[in-house]
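// run 5 | inverse folding | seed 20
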């Protein structure tokens, strides 16, 4: 639960002019001094943590901030709580986050029935650097959009979990080769290994010769064994889930390809349960800032005025 607004005002006025709450005893005064020792007063009146610059939330604005963060990508409880903790100080905020997520109609519409399944996995080589090995797959067929797209080619870095995807009209050897070049090789260099299933587009002579030419080895997993390429299968589920929620919010389910870039940004800035970090942090060394946490523009801004 976020701190009460009266207590927030007590901290605010102590930082402003050093005053304590009326009729406060010595115990309350010590508590005020202790908490204010970690805070500073911003020019716009917000209370910010000195160490990280995170804004302290109170019961008057906490729910709005949680809803804004959640509605940006409709992530689950843990991921929403993690994003909140990056930019805000919310005391005992799990109950509020849990209530927001469980009351979200879009999330409940896309919720899946959980079950436990165990499949033996084969150990692959440990990645030595980003894009050391990349897992690839395809999603579809999906509803055909106005651009004619009905499939998604997907890929994920085995070390950083950085997701890549591209909407295509057909899945064949040409679109697969173009996806490899434009979405992987051109942006991140040539991977040492590409892990894929035995789909006709992945094992075609055209793709084989392309990978041989650039010096990349293609590893094919066992047929009809999705768990053998589980990393990209998990990406497929997460990507489709976020994509469907974003499109449903704007009532444009049949135009899902318009939201593919936004869905990728959400996944790239969300902490991965396997690594404990977001893909953007592991690949670039910093967290991506998303629109929900951008600072609002100044109302009193005058062109040419220096800050």
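// decoded
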């Amino acid at each position: 639960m976020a701190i009460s607004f009266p207590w927030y005002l007590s901290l605010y006025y102590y930082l402003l002019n050093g005053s304590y709450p009326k009729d406060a005893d010595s115990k309350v005064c010590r508590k005020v001094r202790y908490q204010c020792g970690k805070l500073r007063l911003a020019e716009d009146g917000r209370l910010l943590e000195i160490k990280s610059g995170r804004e302290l939330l109170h019961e008057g604005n906490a729910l709005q901030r949680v809803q804004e963060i959640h509605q940006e990508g409709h992530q689950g409880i843990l991921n929403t709580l993690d994003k909140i903790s990056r930019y805000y100080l919310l005391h005992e905020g799990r109950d509020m986050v849990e209530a927001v997520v469980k009351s979200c109609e879009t999330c409940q519409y896309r919720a899946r029935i959980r079950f436990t399944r165990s499949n033996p996995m084969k150990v692959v080589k440990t990645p030595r650097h980003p894009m050391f090995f990349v897992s690839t797959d395809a999603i579809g067929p999906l509803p055909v959009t106005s651009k004619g797209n009905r499939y998604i080619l997907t890929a994920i870095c085995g070390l950083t979990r950085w997701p890549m995807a591209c909407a295509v009209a057909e899945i064949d050897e040409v679109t697969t080769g173009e996806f490899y070049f434009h979405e992987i090789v051109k942006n991140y260099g040539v991977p040492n290994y590409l892990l894929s299933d035995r789909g006709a587009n992945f094992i075609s002579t055209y793709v084989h010769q392309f990978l041989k030419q650039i010096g990349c080895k293609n590893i094919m997993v066992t047929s009809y064994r999705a768990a053998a390429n589980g990393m990209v299968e998990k990406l497929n589920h997460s990507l489709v889930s976020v994509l469907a929620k974003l499109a449903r919010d704007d009532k444009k389910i049949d135009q899902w390809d318009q939201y593919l870039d936004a869905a990728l940004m959400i996944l790239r800035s969300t902490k991965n349960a396997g690594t404990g970090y977001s893909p953007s942090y592991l690949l670039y060394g910093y967290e991506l800032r998303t629109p929900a946490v951008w600072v609002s523009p100044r109302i009193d801004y005058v062109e040419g005025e220096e800050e």
